[in-house]
Input
Amino acid sequence: MASFISPVPKCRPPSESPDDPQTWTESMVSDWLRSIGIKETYIKKLYEEEVDGRVLIELSEDFLKKETGMKSGPALLIIKKRDELVKSSPKAQNQQDCLEKQKIYHVGSGIENYDSRKEEIKEDSESVIKTKGDSKLRPFGTKGDDFTYVENNVLEPESGVIDLITPCHEYKSFKIAATLDRQRLQAKLAKEVLKFATGCVNMRTNGTIHFGVMDSRGDAGYVHGEIVGIPVREKDMYCDALDYIERSFDSFQSEHIRRCIGVPQFILVVCSNSSKEHYVVEVDIEPSVSKVRNNVFSVCLPNFNEKVNKVQFEKKTAYRRVGSKSEPVVDLNEFYQYIPFRDAQREEAETRYNFTAPELCQNLGKKLIMLMTDGKKKMDKDKWYILVTNRFQEKDLQSIDFLLNMNMFCVFDFDNNSNVSGLCHEYNRHHVVNRHFMQNYKIPSGMSIKDFVSHLHLFDQISWIFCNGRSDFKGNEPPCNEMTWVKTKRTLLKDCVSLICKDVLPKGTFKVIFLLTSSVETPFLNTFYEFITDMEGHEDIICIAESEENFKKWQTYALESCDMETVNNSGVVGMTINQINATLQQVQPTTTRASKRLPIHVKGECFLDPREEEMRCSLEILSLNHCEETCLDIIESEKETIEQQFYQGGKLTWMNLWLAEKKVVGEVIQRDAYSDVNSLLSDCLVWSLDRASISCINIYHHPGSGGSTVARQVLWNNRRALRCAVVKHSYSAPVVSEAAVWLREYEEKDPQKTLPVLLLFEDCEQEYLEDVKYELEVAVNTKKIARGTLCFILLSCRRSHHPEKMCKESPQRNVSVTHKLSDAEKNQFSKKRQKLEEQFKPEFILTFVLMCDDFKSHKIAEYVKQFVKHLLQGIDHTSVVTKLVQYVALLNTYLQNSFMSLSHCESLLALSFYVDRFRQHCFETALSEQAKLVLIHLRDENTYITSIRIIHPLVAKEILHQLLGDTQQQSDLALDLLNNDVLFEHRFGRDQYMKFLRDLFITRHKIIKGDELDSFFSPLIEHVRENECPDKAIELLKEAYKRFNEDALFAQHLARLNYKHDKFEEAEKWAETAVAKRPNNSYILDTKGQVYRQWFTAKCKAMEKIDKTPENTVDAVETALKAIECFQACEKAAVADNETMNNAGFVGVVEVGCVLLKLISSLHVFSRPNHCQFMKYLLTDYIPVDLEKPWEHFHCKLKNLQNIMLDALQWVSEDLSFFQTDHNRDEEKTSEKTVKHPIHWLVKKTSDYGKYFNNHSLPTDLRQVRLTPLMKRMMIYSKGGGTFTTIFSVLTNQKYEDPQSVLENIISFYPSNPMSAKMLQMDLVNYIATHFALSCLSTQSSKLAAFQDLQKLSNQFPKEKQKCFPNALFLLVLLFWPEEHDTEKEKERKYEIVLSAVEHLQRSYEKKLKDIPPRKKRIYTHFFLGNGHGFEKIIHKSKVEKITKLFSVSEKRQKWFSGEVWKMPEIAKLLRRVTGWTEDEKVFLEIPTEKTFQIPALNPSSVPHSNENVTFYLGFTLKGPVAYNITVRT
Output
């Protein structure tokens, strides 16, 4: 009988615990680095490099210095402390104990045989003992291709005979032998294999000999059974080595032994830190009794003799297995006697092994359903799925409906032919696929996660990631073999998986399904390792395989990271794809293949192709049968939750409306505004030839008053008559426009006959709405849609604190929704409240209760106060849950629509979830009872990602007030939130959280955005500075500045905050900091100018009660000049910036200049009797003696002040003459001081400017003195005639009681003979403009020059038109516009002048407009062409507006908007229609020359699409003439 010995004690790694450095996360590594005194900058860099515990173990000093720029000192300290840490870790101790135990055991059992291991080498000792994990052996008899080993992992110890079927194992390092030449290597391999095989065969036991596994007990740094691998140059060398069988055994035995020895198997050794290709070579021995019965095998082992340089054979010897080694049989006769017994034992073992009792049938269908549903009745409709798969069989491609019905996020596909004939090709027939490679998931530098997700459309369409090439791709992406893939693509896979798991999808929101449809290879298996690593667990990973062989290979690899029970529990083996398909469709919540339907023009319906819909991801299309694909079981189980979510403050969903429509739940109340909107909608649908192709309806609503509910009800109830969709305003206007045009024309035969599209815009910027409208107008015109055809209705729903005011401005377009309920509404709400209170507790319908109480300030305030007071009784103020509620309340109080992601909340509460089905339960269990009632779960309709907010802003505000009490202030809480590292550094949802946090500190309220008022700082900062302390507000912003990487905008806000509180030195410092960071930002330069301006103002105020002298005003003058310099820099930056128009610098120069002039004029040296000295000082080289020394550094700058101010005034005037006075809506770039009435401002400042440079000592009767040209010019300025804009403002400015006298007075200051006066171009422009303005009031005025004289005078404008001012060119157009009585020759001459002027006007306009879209800076029309001649042919816009003066403001706007104003008989009598034609959608004026005169249409949609003869009105702008009311001639 063979002697047996017990196996070597097995070393297992310690349990995963924080004591084991290998299990540390990046944050834990950071904490450890802090504990050993490493600088925060280095810690941050290592955190960004994702250095976790595993990476820490492998760090080298070179890496630290080269990759992170670390100095030698800290690098050396980290390495030293790391080594000490690893040596003292439980795992390292465990390994050391194993070494000792194995050494003692092997020496005691006599296994160590120095001779048999003399070819082994000892590697250099390592300073750090590597942590080594246990490794599973390749299953006996399986192929090596289906298995891998991990370098430095440890196999179970060598073993002897066990039960004859379980193989015994023997290890050989083979380090040196693997490097020998062919003959020597083969001899050595054959000797070891044949000796081991003979021992196994004679004992009738299975066995495996392993080459590339350490067996030496003396090799420092290695343990027995450690996998090292050997290089394999040629695999056939190892296979051919077994040819020694025939030379080592006699002919009879060689045949039998050959059948017992298996082919060498080559198992790849995976090495994480090297690209070397090593293998473990294994040979299986299987002595079946039929092959070896009654035989004892003796072998002549080959040995290479170095002396004779050839292979020699040892004497014939029989071997047997003794323990874990093969030894010669000493007594052959005795051994022969036991052979029959051993044969019988072997036969019995084989019989026992081959007999399989009938297995109990496993319920695989139930197991699959449990895994996919997390134990629920149905699969989660909001869960994302990630599929990892390889080549699909052709028959299986017909059974993928279950995949089509899933919310598939991405597919990792290892089939390079998938796009041609595989799963991708089949899937793409039903759903849109975005084809990517793993390298596409590398985020470009500077791009945020949000932008990256949008860039790849990750939540809009499935991302199909080809992991090993794509055969049909023309680029360089070929498939590669396993080793090349590991070298070149393993890192890409790691980065790709890491990005998805850590930055895009939070844990618990997705499942990973490994679908094994063909043979499994190493790259596929690597994907499992990356997912289980980054997901920090296996609970959301499922493996499905039809083939047991494929599953076993996956299982073997998975066992490296999980235990057997876990792997088996998460795997489903034996079901075909067809069976899986049928099983899973039973539990899927929706069937996306169920076709959606849309209405069509001829009152029928059409099917909506899912692929077409998915390609238009910028729209959420509302179908006729919306929600009907939802499973009835889901509806029944979730209907109460859905309804409660809405009445607790959640957003109205289509499911709410569908359930109400089907009478499954109670009706959703329709407020009065619903009828108002429907009425406007009906008006839009009434046909009229003049009806616009695009109509707009605006809903303005108080926050929380149900405005968005009204808007969604309108869409839902009109989805049968119109095509309806919600716009996702994260997409650009052109993308939305393209999708909307497609939706309108989808499945319609004639683009001229389609249903209008109703588009809902929820809480988007007005500018964005206008952009979309513009793009749609372009599309309609391009498609040549007939006039009067309504194509699109834009329904905008925006919050506003003044909805009724907005409604009054344009009742034909606007509807208001307020907190105030009508009597009918009160009745409805009261009845509904009674029903809901029977169904839900009051705290679960709080938002609805608040609406029922009419939101009356006194009632609601008391109700909310008592509700919160009752709620917070007994709350633990020290708990982290209470802190979470405070943080969310702070955000919700100050930021509309703010929230905190569930992932952030879980991170703050330090929750981790091992089974996703308990995720929601675990989170809610962690909350206090109070938190459960006030926190509501929101789910993004696009990403399905959950977030948290307080049920109502008023509740949030009251919670904040009561929780803080008298002991804590809001600034303290804000600071605490700002410095919370757990939230700030949490990777998932970081972009959105950072935006909210940033907005909390620097985003200002704007009425134009729907806020109650305009604020100079963010509402939080306003609260802190007004209700707490300005210094606290400053400290808060300072901390925010540091937290947000010293952002220039925070420095800008600090400058503002400091100068608002007269801390000018600090303000100056912060302004300079901001400018240093963004030197070309005109808005920041404006802030710096405002610092000095306010400082200057403060210094002037301090001197009000003292006599001003040159000496005591030095400081103030210096500050004023600094302000002017800053504003000039702002001007320069604004002009250079092609994307914005910022006039703040020009305004600042004038504002400061006026105050500075006032200060200078107040000096005794320039007092009233000496005012001429004031002008003399500023306009000539003269310097008063009193000023010479004190102001020696200012003289040059002050003497240039007049020109600087004049240039600024002219710039503002020109800008106002070009464009309408719309406000800038850019939030971050809003200048310090917004001029609300720019024309009034310009009039005042121009007048002030003229007065300062006017001689105050002049007598009342100016005829008594001789005025210089400069004095006359300044008098003109002081009277309002200094700029083109101020001259024409006299016509409309109500402050002038007798505007005609004002204009006549201005003209009196010009030379009596202007033809010979040789006036400057600017004066010439103002002179002619003043005559045009006067002619609008009276053509009989004695001061009015003859029209022909002005035409002659205009000849003094520069002959080179590019040197003419735009205003001069504009006047040339007015002066020389041909009249009806002109001869043909005169008309030709005049048109020549006009065409030349218009050409240069258009160039000036384009230069002035820069790269800003024309719709954002609308051109201003000054005049229209009238029916008279001379002055009377030019009609000022004010005369046209007087005709509509009797109408209300809203009616007037509606008439202009709809074009009705042009149909009024008064207009037809006043204005002259001109004739022309349209060609290729361009308008041309009929003129008597061979040249063509194109006239831009002010409204491009009014241009006929066909070539027609037309008539139209002419308007005159600084862009040139424009066409109004284009009408086809009949």
In short: The first helix runs from residue 26 to 35. The mean pLDDT is 83. Residues 1444 and 1452 are 6 Å apart (CA to CA).
